[in-house]
Specification:
Elements: H1 5-8, H2 15-19, E1 42-44, H3 48-52, E2 56-61, H4 71-84, E3 89-93, H5 97-109, E4 112-118, H6 124-132, E5 136-140, H7 144-157, E6 161-162, H8 168-174, H9 176-185, E7 191-195, H10 200-214, E8 223-229, H11 234-237, H12 259-268, E9 272-276, H13 278-292, H14 298-312, E10 327-332, H15 340-346, H16 357-364
Parallel strand pairs: 2-10, 3-4, 3-6, 4-5, 7-8, 7-10, 8-9
Antiparallel strand pairs: 1-2
Helix pairs in contact: 4-5, 4-8, 5-6, 8-10, 9-10, 10-12, 13-14
The protein binds pyridoxal-5'-phosphate.
The site of pyridoxal-5'-phosphate has 18 residues, from helix 10 and helix 14.
Length: about 375
C-alpha cells in the first residue's frame, strides 16, 4: 500500500506533512497518512473574555478535527508508525475519543482496530463512531485503569500496536497544536488552560511550546493551567482515585498515565493543576454554547470552568502578570455532539405546539 502524501488531503496537509520535520520519529519510510487533522480554528472569545478580564482570550477548537477531538493529531502519527512497522492491528483502552480516532485511522489504512471499553463508561456519540468504523469493541467489566493495564499486557505479548497515549508517537503528534497556536498569533500565550484526564495533552502542549521557544520561534512559554474534575482529581489530591466520578467522561481518570510529566509541565512553567466541580463544568459548558456558539463536550468545558474560577480569585502576591495584560488560550478538546445525553439532560426547552401558524406565532412571542 502506498500513501502519496500529495493526494491524501489537498486542502489540509495534515500533521505529518505540516510538522513531520519536527517529529523525530517521522522519517522517509513513514507513510504520510492524513484525514486532514490539525490546522484547527483559533477563535477569539466574544463574550466570556469580559468575565475573565484578560487582554485576549482564544479558544483552540480541537473539536474541529476529523473525528471531533484532538486525539486525531496523535493518532495519525501512532497509526502511521504502526503501518511502518507492519502491525496488522491497533488496540486501545478508551472511554471514547481515543477509540473513535483509532477506529477511523485504522479503517482508512486497512488495519484492524480493537477497543477495550471500561464497563458502562462511554458516551453514545463516541461509541457510535467506533462502531461505524468497524472497530471490534470489548466491554471490559472494570474501570479505565483496568482496561489500560490489560491493553498494555496484550500488546507486550502480541504483534498489536498499543495506541493509547502511553504510545510515545501520540504525544509527538499532539504537541503540534502548540506549534499552531504560536504560528497563528505570532508568539506563545501567557496562559494555557487545558483539561486533564490521562495528562498526555498537557504534557504534549508543554513539549511543543518548549521546542518552539528553543527554536526561537516563540519568545516566551505559557504557564500551563491544568484542570481535573473534582471526583477524578488524583494529581490535585496527590493520590490515585479508585472510583473516579464526573459528568466529564473524557477526564474521568483515576491514575493518569502521564502523571509525572504533567507535574513537570506544571512546575517548569510555574503553572497550576487544580480541580473544578461538575456544577462548574456544566455552567461553563452552558456558557460556551450560549454565549460563544461553541458546543463542546463536558471535559472540554472543564478548562473554561477553571479559567472562570481562576479569574474570580484575588490576584496573588507572586508578582505574576495580571490577567488584564494576559493572552489566554483555552483548549476545546472535543465536540459536544459526542455526548448528546448531557446536553439534553441539562434543561431542554422543547415545547409542544399544534401545527397551526397562530400556535407557533404565540409560542415564538410574535
Ligand atoms: C482525551 C480527552 C481529554 C483528556 O486529555 P488527556 O491527554 O487524557 O489528559 C480531554 N478532553 C477530551 C474531549 C478528550 O478526548
Amino acid at each position: 500500500m502506498s500513501y502519496r502524501a500529495e493526494t491524501e488531503s489537498p486542502s489540509h496537509p495534515g500533521v505529518l506533512r505540516r510538522y513531520g520535520d519536527r517529529i523525530p520519529d517521522v522519517g522517509s519510510n513513514t507513510p504520510l497518512i492524513s484525514l486532514g487533522e490539525g490546522d484547527t480554528p483559533l477563535v477569539h472569545s466574544r463574550r466570556l473574555h469580559e468575565r475573565v478580564g484578560c487582554r485576549e482570550l482564544y479558544f483552540k477548537l480541537e473539536m474541529c478535527n476529523p473525528t471531533g477531538s484532538f486525539k486525531d493529531r496523535g493518532m495519525v502519527v501512532a497509526v502511521a508508525k504502526a503501518l511502518e512497522s507492519e502491525s496488522k492491528a491497533v488496540l486501545c483502552a478508551s472511554t471514547g475519543n481515543t477509540s473513535a480516532s483509532a477506529a477511523a485511522y485504522a479503517a482508512r489504512c486497512g488495519l484492524d482496530a480493537y477497543v477495550l471499553v471500561p464497563h458502562g463508561n462511554i458516551a453514545q456519540g463516541k461509541l457510535a463512531q467506533a462502531v461505524a468504523h468497524g472497530a471490534r469493541i470489548l466491554d471490559v467489566q472494570g474501570n479505565f485503569d483496568d482496561a489500560l493495564r490489560l491493553a498494555r499486557l496484550i500488546c507486550e505479548q502480541h504483534p498489536v500496536a498499543l495506541v493509547n497515549s502511553v504510545n510515545p508517537y501520540r504525544l509527538e503528534g499532539q504537541k503540534t497544536a502548540a506549534f499552531e497556536i504560536v504560528d497563528s498569533i505570532g508568539d506563545a500565550p501567557d496562559l494555557l488552560f487545558i483539561p486533564i484526564g490521562n495528562a498526555g495533552n498537557i504534557t504534549a502542549y508543554w513539549r511543543g511550546f518548549v521546542e518552539y521557544y528553543r527554536a526561537e520561534i516563540a519568545t516566551k512559554k505559557p504557564r500551563m493551567m491544568g484542570w481535573q474534575a473534582e471526583g477524578a482529581a488524583p494529581i490535585v489530591e496527590g493520590k490515585s482515585v479508585a472510583d473516579p466520578q464526573s459528568v466529564a467522561s473524557a477526564i474521568r481518570i483515576g491514575n493518569p498515565a502521564s502523571w509525572r510529566l504533567a507535574e513537570a509541565a506544571r512546575d517548569e512553567s510555574s503553572g497550576e493543576i487544580k480541580s473544578v466541580s461538575d456544577d462548574e463544568i456544566l455552567e461553563a459548558y452552558r456558557l460556551l454554547a450560549r454565549e460563544e456558539g461553541i458546543f463542546c463536550e463536558p471535559a472540554s468545558a472543564a478548562c473554561v470552568a477553571g479559567l472562570l474560577k481562576y479569574a474570580r480569585q484575588p490576584v496573588g502576591p507572586s508578582g505574576g502578570r495580571s490577567l488584564a495584560e494576559s493572552t489566554i488560550v483555552c483548549v476545546i478538546t472535543g465536540h459536544g455532539l459526542k455526548d448528546p445525553e448531557t446536553a439534553l439532560g441539562i434543561e431542554s426547552e422543547i415545547r409542544e405546539v399544534e401545527p397551526r401558524i397562530e400556535a407557533i406565532e404565540q409560542a415564538m412571542g410574535l
